[in-house]
Amino acid sequence: MDKIAKDQRVSAKHLSFAAKTNLGSFYTPKRIAQKLYETLAKFVAPDQIDVLLEPNCGYGALLEGEYVKRIKKVIGADIDESAIAIAKSAFSFVCFKSANALKNISRSNYGINENDRLLIAANPPYNDLTSQIKNGVKKLACEIDRDLLTRDLGLSSLLGFNRLRPDFIAVLHPLSYLIKKTNFNLLKPFMKNYALKEALIFNSQEFCDASKTSGFPVLIAIYAKEQKGTSYEDIYHWRFNTIEGESFTMAQFDYIGAYLDKYPNKKKKNSKYLFYTMRDINALKRSRTFIKEEIANAVHIREEKLDYYCYVDIFKDYADRLPYYMGNLDVPIDNKRFESLRDSFRILSAYKHSDIFAKPKFDDFQKAQTRAQDYFRDFLEKVRL
Ligand SMILES: C[S@@+](CC[C@H](N)C(=O)[O-])C[C@H]1O[C@@H](n2cnc3c(N)ncnc32)[C@H](O)[C@@H]1O
């Protein structure tokens, strides 16, 4: 295999950009694959496993290394037959199979016995079919069983793994699968059976061909089949470590969602000000804030909440300074400090959107700017503590 993995970052060279996007074929760099097995080894030794299944093997980045070689039976599968043909030439000890991991999946289809101790190691495709990025090329690349169907192939893949009842799962997946409540809820059938044992964050920009401008946090996650499963409460208090040695918990911040409406609120019509729908920090970086047109994504602002929207509007200007691993969080706020700065945020937004608000005096603008800079400087220092 070392022939292929000489370069740390491997690109699916046989695929067009559109095919790569639809199959989610962004292959794992060697250092991440090594870290995955290093992390897994803390929980289970290779000789305690009968079968390793890699259901989305691509060129085989996760079939490499000492840990894998010590497992009795190793199966590599993928829906992409050309990728399998390339992987076959590099791994003589692996049984390869062309298979759709989202359709009729069962142990017997992969040639795995019911009582084998099974490990799944995978970096499934993450392909959010509703996301606005790369919207022009996205389409569903395979058939999916009804009960596995979600809006994201990665979420569906995890539900598929659950069906195979593995004892351990070592998987790379976006952090948003855990921290976004809607995603977590879709994963409930999986989370009921699997306890998160370790979760290490890295930047999606580690993947070859990934966006150079907007990285999102991805996890090296180890799950074990345990009756207690994983609850959203566990996630909320989980201390996530990053591969770079930083850490955070969701619970350490207060979030803007507690103070304003983030999504279209159709019943509250006729407000003076409108704001674009808010999702997470990464979405805010790309989206607009105050808007003038009544569109489907418009949030109607209640007058008494206006200062909070101004806060988000100004937060957007500082968002690039936040670490990538916070990208899927809601906009955080230090509400106590905000209370003493309300006017400053309003003045700054007014200055920024002179077509919507009356333009403030330059002097007031300068004072407000200094105060907001102090707020964000202190906030960013606290994040990195
Ligand atoms: C993120 S890549 C990972 C490849 C490899 N595991 C690695 O880590 O480098 C996702 C892989 O999933 C495969 N894939 C996409 N849809 C699939 C499906 N329905 N069934 C099986 N494999 C699929 C793609 O062909 C691609 O090889």
What's the gist of this structure?
The chain is an alpha/beta fold.
How does this structure look, described?
This protein is of the alpha/beta class and 385 residues long. The chain has 2 domains: 2-252, Vaccinia Virus protein VP39 (Rossmann fold); 256-383, no CATH class. 33% of the residues lie in helices and 15% in strands. The protein has a 9-stranded mixed sheet, with helices on both faces. A 3-stranded antiparallel sheet has the order 11-10-12, with no helix packed on it. A hairpin with a 4-residue loop joins strand 8 and strand 9. Helix 15 (342-352) packs across helix 16. The longest helix is centred in the C-terminal third of the chain and has 22 residues, at 362-383. It is elongated, with a radius of gyration of 23 Å. The chain starts with a helix and ends with a helix. The relative contact order is 0.09. Residues 1-6 have low confidence and may be disordered.
Give the overall silhouette: elongated
**Largest β-sheet summary:** 9 strands, mixed
The fold-level CATH name of the largest domain is Rossmann fold
Oligomeric state of the chains? Answer: single chain
Keywords:
single chain; 385 residues; alpha/beta; Rossmann fold; 2 domains; 9-stranded mixed β-sheet; 3-stranded antiparallel β-sheet; 16 helices; 12 strands; 15% strand; disordered N terminus; binds S-adenosylmethionine
Summarize the SSE layout with pairings:
Layout (H helix, E strand, L loop, with lengths): L1 H4 L11 H7 L6 H11 L10 E4 L11 H4 L3 E6 L2 H8 L6 E4 L8 H4 L7 E5 L30 H11 L4 E7 L1 H4 L1 H6 L1 H4 L2 E10 L13 E9 L6 H6 L2 E3 L4 E2 L25 E3 L4 H6 L3 E2 L6 E3 L5 H13 L16 H5 L2 H11 L9 H22 L2
Parallel strand pairs: 1-2, 1-4, 2-3, 4-5, 6-8
Antiparallel strand pairs: 5-7, 6-7, 8-9, 10-11, 10-12
Helix pairs in contact: 13-15, 15-16
